[in-house]
Structures are given as structure tokens and as C-alpha cells.
Amino acid sequence: MEKGYVALVLHAHLPFVRHPENSKYLEERWLFEAITESYIPLLRVFHRLLQDGVDFRLTMTLTPTLLSMLSDGLLLDRYRQHLILLIRLAEQEVIRTRNHPEMNRLAHFYHERFVLTLEFFDAYNGNLITAFKEIEDAGKIEIITSAATHAFLPLVNREQSIRAQIETAVQLHKTILGRAPNGIWLPECGYKPGIDGILKDYGLKYFFVDSHAFEAASPRPVFGGYAPVLTPHGIAAFARDRESSKQVWSSHEGYPGDYDYREYYRDIGYDLELEYIAPYIHPDGIRVNTGIKYYRITGKGDHKELYNPEWAREKAAIHAGHFLFNREKQVEYWFENMGRKPIVVAPYDAELFGHWWFEGPIWLDLFFRKMHYDQHTVKAITPSEYLREYPEQQVCRLPMSSWGRGGYADVWLNGRNDWIYRALHKAEERMSQLADRFTEANEVEVRALNQAARELMLAQSSDFAFIMDNKTMVDYAVKRTKIHINRFTRLYESLMAGDVDTEWLAVIEMRDNIFPDVDFRLYRTGRHHETLSLQRRRRFPSVLMLAWEYPPLTVGGLSRAVYDLSRHLTEKNWEVHVVTFRPEGTREYEIMEGVHVHRVDVLQPDGDEFIHWAFSLNLAILDRCEQLYEQGLRVDLIHAHDWMVTYAAKTLKEKYQWPLVATIHATEYGRNQGIHTDLQRYIHHMEWRLTYEAWRVIVCSPYMEREVKTIFSLPQDKIDIIPNGIDGDKVQPHGDSSVLREQYAQPHEQIVFFIGRMVQEKGVHLLLEAIPEILQACPQAKFLIAGRGPMLAKWQNDVKESGLSEKVMFVGFVDDETRNHLFHLADVCVFPSLYEPFGIVALEAMAAGVPVVVSDVGGLSDIVNHGEDGCKMLPGDPHSLAVQVIHLLKDPHFSEQIVMRARKKIERQYCWETIAEQTARVYERILSECALQLAEKEVASHQERV
């Protein structure tokens, strides 16, 4: 049985080059050379492997531009003529070299090769896409897509433009290949946060990044690059393996540079007399590669010996065996350390195989044969197959990254090509402007708008920026970029002026004929909201939730509470729309686990003008809600969470007559043990206003019920107590937590863990005061403190001055996955809060199986029964905290009993399904009371008229 897998990925891509106006363009030869030297040789390898019963797996990108060219009749006709010319040249070479036996043997070799290539091409009537589909239908390769024109997505400015690139690509893939792609090759492996959510919207399951993206991920992947990770939006990311990539890819350190392999740079198109070679190169006498090369690499100098195909094949066999041996050792090592089968991801440009590395297809053929016949340790696999075998993966946030020099877009943004982005970004803005303006376009306008979309996408090709950086064919790259931008600009101006030149439009439609089904409406602002018009015919009740934070933004417990409540309400057949703040890297709109999430942009003011920021947030929420209303959104009621959204909630209630329910998660009075400043007084007033405007007020604990009744003078019958809940699955780590332990503690140390905001009310200072007493009784204790906030620097300094730095570690902000691992590693969790309306983090620790010590205040006091499912400390008392922690550390049996009873309690009382049901009943009660009130008003009005 295999111990691991290797995923070979070939990225087949060429920029869209099609010049019907002139057959002399050298750049069309890029396609011709790739077909002759890479695509058909690879297809022939696949055919032989199938015929011989050799099992193999390969993932292969066929980019939208390449698919378009491979299905273009003009280009395929020109290619066939090109191939016939090569056969004639090879025939001439057989004659010319007849007195040189070794070279003549090579001339015959090339002649036979070109003839077989033509036979293969004609056997499929020029339709190589069908040949690839046959291999995929046989289950041996998986064909994936890329962005429409291979745009470098991190430098695309507008979300609509990224969506247009992805949606166009997916639709073309479906049209040409007959099925939706599972994966995508992000052009140049270019990724930035937020792209993953867009990929998810179009049904894509995975993508690839370079290895350093995993190294800089948060948290760092437990299995390194030997397993995929899930992004926050649930898309799998696979990392390129450095070692396997370099062995094949590098012409200096890797196999392609071997002296027995064919020398790429000695071609008869350059070596022979111009008079002889002229009929077979560019009509203007420009020398080009013909593909006939007689020499091997030989050495580093200019002297070259004749190429020997037999020697090259023997060397390819050695290298295939060497590559397989190294993958076996990788797999064996990581299998023992991971407890699961690792995957080694080895991606390459497909054109490397055959074009740049002539023996590449032979090497690939031999590699699969050796894997099939000679060993059972490593097996080839596709990413989709691996994800089916291992559906559960670690969740990580990946940074912006790319492959290429520097690893962070340097190739595509530097002094040689940066000028293009100002023009591209302006064109993006104008394209959305056109799409928004022309809601009812006539036939000519639709043609012009669609052509404008084509021109913009073609200008966005990353290939042109790469060529400018690489200093090859720079004039062509600059010319192409300017041509497409200029055509786009002319279309824009003519559409805005209402004067489209139909003759000129027909000409450029003929020249840039890519994506015949492109739809300019892809660029409409908020196009992904258009489905909201269906709300007019909705079948389920709906609620509009307003909350300033929502995942992935998580500052406190509010974010998780709103997230869990909203997604569980959808399971109760409620349609939920959440309007919230939009942090960097997130999307304006998405559907998260059935919840419609709408995010608004608000610029943070300079200084500490928090109140002004909150007011700006409310204005932005109002604007978005009004847009949604215009697009057809109708809801039954509003649910506002805390004072930060009071103004927006009150205004929407009055404007649309939607009843309002409010949840008070905490109060300013409670946080500060009174109201002492003007800022606190303002916040207190906004909290009161929200409870005053609300039809009903929800609080999370009996403690909070007593608090809001007292400080807001609320009547008892206006308040509902519904606790926050916990989803046990959300606090379970992926992978082995012990792998992370060495980062935080020695094997013999017992971990005491705190997580929360670094503010006075969370009581971290009490924990710090208790540590010396705990260490005296339990010297093996180690204290981990996670979180960030205004008190962090002070408390770090306190620890340093007390000499406890070796025993206390401030780990800063941790994401959910790291938090789950730390819960799993902890022996005790402590929450010594001075004020805690509920205490969701204590529930999370209890659900994770950690005994807790909590302060006997607020909601924590309601959650924990002392000595049964947790331990309580006297509020504000470090000695009391120390006593409880010592008891739990010294009595493992007592701790186990605490954990067992805590889990049963959570399953019984704090299940989100139950909480969502309770909330839905509050909603239904409000709607019934509203309906009754409306009916009473109508009766009263009728009686008054009578």
C-alpha cells in the first residue's frame, strides 16, 4: 500500500495571439511550436500509457486563451501549413546531410517525428481538445482552468474585474470541455486574500500557491506543504514543493541541463546559410527556430557534440528513477511524522516538456512506468482525488504571494512595466461605469460593450508584463497592451457619446474574437446582488441583522455569536442578511453557510475618533440597505446587535416600518463599573436608545437581564433571555496538536491558558499576580496568554520586571485554528474577568475538553457550577484564582470529572440549534404582535371613518 502521493501539474498556457490581418506575425509561432514540441508529444505519451495499461495521474491546465486558440479554425489551418513546411524542410535536411551519417540519422529522426505529428493532428481533424478530453474521460488526467486571459489577479483593482476573469473562464471551460472545472491555476500563482471567496462562488474547489505562501500563513500549516490547507472561505490551497520542482524545472541544477540532452539554442534556423533556410523561416528573412536541432548540450562552453537520442533516453530513464526515489524518501519520512499520506505537489509549465526540455515527455513516460511497475510507496494522484480521501484540512489565512523572482509580484510590477497599471485600473473603472449605465442597450451597443470587455481582459494578460520584465519581444508586448487599451478607450468614448462606428467595430470583433459568449454585465457594480430581486417571491421569513463585526473579523465574542446564530437560523428556514463592516481582503458580498453577508467600506479616521467612525459605519450600513431595498430585498424584521448600529437600526425601522429586535451583549455601565466620562455617557445613551426603540430586547444571561432592567429601566416583559451557544466541532483542531507544543512549552510542563482581549475588565493582571503562588505549588506550570489590546504592552513589561519571562508567554492574536490547538494542549483555562456579560470563550474551552477557572461574575457565574463543571474564583482575588488552578493541576481525576460534566452541560443547554429555535420564536412572537397591532389600527381607523 502506498504511503503518499505525488501530484504532477502541467500548466499549459499561451497568451492569445491571433492576427487574421497578417500571417507574418512571428508570435503565432509560439502556438505552433507548443503544439509540435509539447502538446502532441504529451498526448502521444498519454496514448501509449493507456495502450500499455499503465496507471497514471496528471493535472493539466488548459487556459481559456489556449483553448480559444486550439479551437480557432484560422490558427489551426495556419498550423497545418506550418507543419507541412517543417516536413519539407526535414526532407531537404535528409538530402543535405546524406554525406554525414550521424547528422543524417538525426534528419531522418526529425522527418519521421514531423510526419507522425501531422498524422496525429489529422487523426483528430485538428481538434486536440478532443484528444485531451478522451484522456480525462479515461480518468487519467484532470483538466483545470485559469483566469480568462491569465490576468495577474493581485494587481487587478476591482472585484468585478476579478469576477469577470473567473466567470468567463469557468463558462468557457464548460462550453468547450463539457464539464465544470474543479480547480484553477491562479496566473503566476498570484493570490491575495479574498480571491478564495470569489473562486468559491464559481464552484472551484482548489488552487495552487508557491511554497512561501504556506511558510507565511497564519497559522503556519502543521504539515507544511505536504497537505493542502483550507482558506477562510473553504477553498483548498496546494503548495508547490521546492525540491521536486527544482529537480525538473531548473536548467542549471535540474535534469534539463544534463549534457546528454538536446541543446535548445542550436537550431538550423540560425546555423545554416540564409539562402538555404530562407523558404522555411519568416518571409522577411528573420531567423527563427525550426525545431531541428542537431547538437546536445555537451558542456558549458560553445563547443557542441552531435545529439544522440539513445543516450538522451537512457539519461531520461536515470533521471526518472532518481526523481521517483526522492519522492519515495520524502513520502516515507512525512508519512511517519504526519500520521496520514502526504502529497508532494510538483507543478511545471507544460511547455517545458518537449519545447524547452526536449526529453521531458520521454522522462514523464518513463516516470509513470517506473511508478507503475517498480514500487508501491508513492502513487500519482490529482488534487481532487486527494481532497476526496482527506476532506478535512487545517484552516489557514494565506498572504498575498506569487511565484517568480522575489515571490511577491516583483516580476509583474517593477520599473519596466508599472506604467500599464494606471491605464488598466482606469479601464476597469470605466468598464463598470459602462455596465452600470447601459441597463437597456440596443444590439449595436451590446456588441460594443462586449467588445470593450474583451479588450480590457486581453490588456490584462500577465504575459505582457512578464515579457517587458524579461526583455524579450518587449516591443510586441508594449504594442499589444497599448492596442487593447486604445481600442477599449475608443469604445468607451463612442458609447458614452452615443456614436459607435459599426464598421470599425466589425473589424476589431473579427481580430479579437475571443470569448464569443462574453457578457459585459459581469462588470456591473453589485451584480452579485441582483439575485435579491427574487426576494419579491421569497418563501421563507427573513431577518436583517446589523453587527459591526462578523467573521473573518473577530474582535470579541459578538462576531462569533452573530455568526453562529445567523447560520443556524438558516437551518430553521429563515433567510438571513447580515450587514457589517468590511475589513481588508474580504468581499463586498458573499453567502457564508447560507447567510447573505453584505460588507460596507468605512475609512478609519486619524486619531481616536471612534464615535465618528461608528457614525460613518451607520451611514454606510444605511446606504447599503437602501441599495438592497431598491434591488428588491424585503425583510420581516431587523435584529441589531449592540449600540454600534443603533442609528442605522432606528432609521431603517422608521423608514421601512420593519420591527426591531435588539440583543445587548454587554453594557458600558457594566464594563466600567459605572459611567464616568462623556464618551461612556454617550455610549450608555446609545445603548438605552436601542433598547427603547426595540420591540423586544434579548440578553444572554440572567445576570444581564438584571443589569439591563436596572440601568435602562426596561420592563420585565420586554426582555428575553437566550444564551449564546457553542458548536463543539468549531473548537476541535485539525491535525496533531503535539506538533505545535514545542513552540509553547516543554514536554513536562503543564499549560495554563488564557485567551481574550488585553483590557482591564478581562482580569489578566489578576492571573499575573497569582502566578508566583501557582509556581510555588506547581513549578512545572507554563502560562500562555493569547490576545491583543491596549494593556498588552504594560502586562508584558510587568512580566519582564517580575522575572517570569521564562514561565509566561504572550502569544498575541491567534486565529481559530491555533486557538483550538492551544485548547487541546492546555491543562487549565482561566478567565478571571471583572465583568463578563456571558463568557462565550469559557464555553469554547469547556467544549474543547479543558477544565476552566472563571470569575464568579456576570454570565460566567451563570455558566459554571463550582466543583461540578468548572471552578469559580472570588472576583478580583489572585489568591482565590491560584487555589483553583493548583487544585486542577494537582488532581487529574478531579479535572477529568469536571471536563466530562462540562461537555454534557454544553450539549444539553448551549446547543446552537436550540438557541436558534428560541430566537426564531422571539421573531415569530414579534411578527404576530405586529400583525395584531396593525389589525387593531385598521379596525380603529375603519370605525373612525364610519
From TrEMBL:
Residue stretches spanning the membrane: none
GO biological process, one term: alpha-glucan biosynthetic process
CDD domains in alphabetical order: GH57N_AmyC_like (cd10792), GT4_PimA-like (cd03801)
GO-annotated cellular components: extracellular region
Domain Glycoside hydrolase family 57 N-terminal intervals: 7-296
Pfam families linked: BE_C, Glyco_hydro_57, Glyco_transf_4, Glycos_transf_1
InterPro entries for this protein: 57_glycoside_trans_central (IPR037090), BE_C (IPR015293), Branching_enz_MT3115-like (IPR040042), Glyco_hydro/deAcase_b/a-brl (IPR011330), Glyco_hydro_38_N_sf (IPR027291), Glyco_hydro_57/38_cen_sf (IPR028995), Glyco_hydro_57_N (IPR004300), Glyco_trans_1 (IPR001296)
Sorted UniProt keywords: Carbohydrate metabolism
Start and end residues of each Glycosyltransferase subfamily 4-like N-terminal domain: 555-727
Binding positions (substrate): 240, 257, 403, 463
Matches recorded under PANTHER family: 1,4-ALPHA-GLUCAN BRANCHING ENZYME RV3031-RELATED, 1,4-ALPHA-GLUCAN BRANCHING ENZYME TK1436
Recorded family membership: Belongs to the glycosyl hydrolase 57 family.
Record's protein name: DUF1957 domain-containing protein
Provenance organism: Collibacillus ludicampi
